[in-house]
Design goal:
Layout (H helix, E strand, L loop, with lengths): L17 H15 L3 H4 L17 H7 L4 H5 L12 H12 L9 H4 L18 H21 L3 E5 L5 H9 L3 E6 L2 H25 L10 E4 L5 H7 L12 E3 L17 E9 L1 H12 L3 E9 L22 H6 L4 H7 L4 H6 L2 H24 L14 H10 L9 H6 L18 H4 L1 H4 L21 H15 L10 H8 L4 H11 L1 H18 L5 E7 L10 E7 L1
Parallel strand pairs: 1-2, 1-5, 2-3, 3-4, 5-6
Antiparallel strand pairs: 6-8, 7-8
Pfam families: Methyltransf_32 (PF13679)
Keywords: Methyltransferase, Transferase
GO biological process, one term: methylation
Length: 557
Amino acid sequence: MEMAANGATDCKYSCETAAQTLQWIHAIVDFLKPYSFLTNAHVVNFFKDRLWEAIDKEWIECLRNEPVENLLQIPSGVVQDHWPASLKKFILTLRSLVFPREQADLQTVLPGLNISSLGTVLAQGMNPKKKHEVEVLSAVVSYITNSVKAHTIVDVGAGQGYLAQVLSFHYQHSVVAIDASSHHGRVTDARAERIKKHYASQMHKSGPGKRSLIVPKTITCHVMSIDTLKDLTSITRFNDNEHDHDNVDTELQQPSCHGDNKTSVVLAGLHACGDLSVMMLKTFLDCEEVKAVVSVGCCYNLLSEEGFDNVDSQYGFPMSCGVKYAGLSLGKSLRDLACQSAERWRCLEIDDGVHNFELHAFRAAFQMVLNEYYPEVMTRSLSIGRQGKALRRLQKRGTFDSRLIHKDNACASLHHIRLKTEGKTEPEADDSISSLFEKAPLSGRVSHSGSECDGIKSVDKYSLFLRYSQSGLCHLGLEPLQDIDFPRIWKEVEPFSEFIGLYWSLRAALGPLLETFLLLDRLLFLQEQGNTIEAVMLSIFDPALSPRNVAIIAKKN
């Protein structure tokens, strides 16, 4: 079976061969070099380091007057005719280096593939996004499993078992669902029992000649190393009618992937988090029993990186020799940035985008407070979290109660706020704030130019900044000092707050490019193994439903 690589008209690069993939990687590295003022900056330091001054003045003067909707289109590569030529070149060149995210024609790439629509029983509990992902990925995994004639599928990072159950009940494969959460394992088992009863009832009604039911086996295990995942592939042969739940120790002792048994396995992962997707690819190469892998990754911010995070030799980036020699380190800030989705930006309502820009302004202004009055905390990596939820409620009500800034009330509303200080020596970007587009777009009511919209004239930006700061100090365990001059700090930064939206839009445009770089590294890692491995990278989901839609599919020849 031949698997063709994905392509699109707006991308002039190809990754069908290792040489082509490496050429693409080098083009990305070369493009990024002149823009260190974007890649090396942290938006939380926007005011403190006066980051807007590094941007071309012509770009600033142009974008400061642009409607918010035009800024939200920048990560998608959309430019306006009246923009400066250098700005248009930056955006369009960047976009030409991004892996195409339009859903591939899977029937052409995988001839004979049949994607089935899930019925209400199998789709129970799934939102439209999850249903779409499971429908497509289960069909692809089943197709690959049949093509390599594998006995068993191992669903890595199975969550509540949606993918595993469709592969078992609908496609009739033997499946092992692995997840670190024992709660997820119990949910998977309970859900499988309900589905099993439905199918058993249908089979009883259909009379003699019924087929046997295949129920997924669940294993709770923290996959902390490649050896652990390799060992789990030896626990894949089980009675099709058996349904049990195993608790497996995190560290298994005797590696068993030596190729002397006849079990054959396909590894599958739907948004296997961080290093878990990397472990899948390495296990695919190292374990003779694993005949193919289908991996859709996510959470690049949680990847371990060589030279960072105090990791050992089993780091998640870089994987390929080509990227190691290319010499581009990312660090946590750029791995965070790789999680930005152009599709989510493009689909945001204007008010949601404005509110997100405001939150970045509040966070950067709060950094000024910390820098001036609490310099000792600047040696830590601070994440003060999703305070935007509380501010959103205030803005939607159209009123602001000054009592909310009091410490007790502030603390009561901060159940989503986090402080991360372990093992860090340098302040980094607030990944919770910068990931709001990806995880929880918020609503606001103030225009990009700073004028107020109807219905919220009683909401004062300074008051919101004050609440944000009081809340942040509370959660960081810092006693509010009597001499903090909040009005002065806000007065100093407010004239430049209009620049933060355009700056963040330009920086966020690098997100899809950095994700492409990380994915090409994984693909090249497989391609560097030579003709024994056949590997492709495909956008398998509709990006409007599932922006993290790129699958790496590989099999052994």
